[in-house]
Amino acid sequence: MNWAGLDDLIKMALGEDIGHGDVTTGSLVSPDLQASGVFLAKMKGVLAGIEVSQAVFAQLDPEVSFMIHKKDGELIKPGDILARVEGSAATLLTGERLALNFVQRLSGIATKTRQYVDLIGDHPVRLVDTRKTTPGLRVLEKYAVTVGGGYNHRFGLYDGVMIKDNHIAVAGGITAAVYQVRAKVPHTLKIEVEVDTLEQLQEALVVGADIILLDNMDITTLKKAVKITRGRALLEASGGINEKTIAAVAKTGVDLISSGALTHSAVSLDISFDIE
User: Fold this and answer.
1) Which one is catalytic: 80, 96, 192, 194?
2) Residue 8 a catalytic site member
3) Which residues in the chain are classed under CATH 3.20.20.70?
4) Catalytic annotation present for 97
5) In sequence order, what are the residues at sequence separation of 6 or more whose Cβ sits closer than 8 angstroms to the Cβ of residue 105?
6) Is 3's pLDDT higher than 90?
7) Which of 25, 87, 174, 176 is the most buried if burial means most Cβ atoms within 10 Å?
8) Is 44 a catalytic residue?
9) What angle in degrees, to the nearest 10, is found between the helix axes of 198-206 and 219-229?
10) Is 199 among the catalytic positions?
11) pTM of the predicted protein model
């Protein structure tokens, strides 16, 4: 994975875990002892983050050999060897937990995303993530969403306009909010407005919102929203998206489905690291 901030993130995480030293490994293992170990899949899913695990060991000891057997995006099953690591036994023991934390977490997100994508099937709708990510890990978690077949929404408050219910309340209404934002932001930024009702949808359309988020609307209301909009704005369905509802939402004709569950509720994939 090519991300300029990865080294700093790993440095911080290693500092959190190691502190002033790995007292267990330092007491038991000779610095000269060499070993090898494997990352082993314990359940099926989609692999993501194996290169992040590689970067953990590289930062601990550049002499460690990390051989990737399965790449990000590949389907894995129990018993699959994902990577083999060779080098200082002390380094392998010190780095294994952090390396596992990354690859397990990211693989869990990629696996959940792929599950939702498969449920959407051939319907022409994009599955997108949200800002409901682990603080400090947003870039990695959004990367995992793309590995699973999803797409990224805005990365932060800086790269997209999202006028939500509280913004609308403060501004005094949808029309006022859109006019105020449009007067200040660059023309290159699209304006998205969150609506709860069809009446608000109509107002957002009249004022020229580029994207309209349909918040927690049932299937019947979503269908009506698509019919009312007639392609004048992109429609994003959000709220209550899960394994039981996503297929029905996809069938309504919306353009986007956003789900915070892709990141905030993904279960880490069971992967082990075993010294051979």
Assistant:
1) 194
2) no
3) 118-264
4) yes
5) 49, 134, 137, 141, 144, 266, 268
6) no
7) 174
8) no
9) 20
10) no
11) 0.96
